[in-house]
Amino acid sequence: MDWLATYSQALEERDDREHVYKDCIESYTKLADYAAAAWNIPIQVPNEETATDPATPKARSKGKATVESEPLTLTALRSDLASTQKARAALQSQLADLTTQLDNLSSQQRLSQQQLTILTKQKQDVDRKLRDRDEELRGKSKLVEQAHDEMAALGFQLSVAEVRSERLEKENKELVERWMRRMGEEAEKVNRDSKWE
After folding, report:
1. CA distance linking residue 92 with residue 27, whole number of Å
2. pLDDT at residue number 64
3. What pTM does this model have?
4. Dihedral over alpha carbons 82, 85, 86, 91 (to 10 degrees)
């Protein structure tokens, strides 16, 4: 297994583990977003005097001073929290995009692995068939050589037989001629002896 397959498998296992808590994480995230949005709303802090008589100038000035004297640290924290929430949302979107791309690459890698397995098996089959054909060709070449040797041997035997046949035919002819001469001579002798000439 190559490094990409191992890495993809590790990511899938991590995703499976994290999906168990997916509902809790999403609920907490929504709650945090809601809280951050709520903290951006200006808070009016009433005091006792503005609550009893909001029309008096003294009460109005005291209420305004209370709102304006809200700690700057809390405002900064709220702003920082809102920025962090925006950054987290951007990172979450980026993570979703990367996860989608990784899933697509994992699917392509699995498909490529399947195609590689199929092509490897086909190559092995073709290699085996090629070896079988080579073996068959070697066997047939050997048979052709044996047949050629046998034909050469038969041709030599035929040539020897033809030479022998010609020799025997010549000897037979000579024997016949000698026998005919002998028979002729004997006939002449018999004729002479019988005085037929």
Report:
1. 14
2. 47
3. 0.38
4. 160
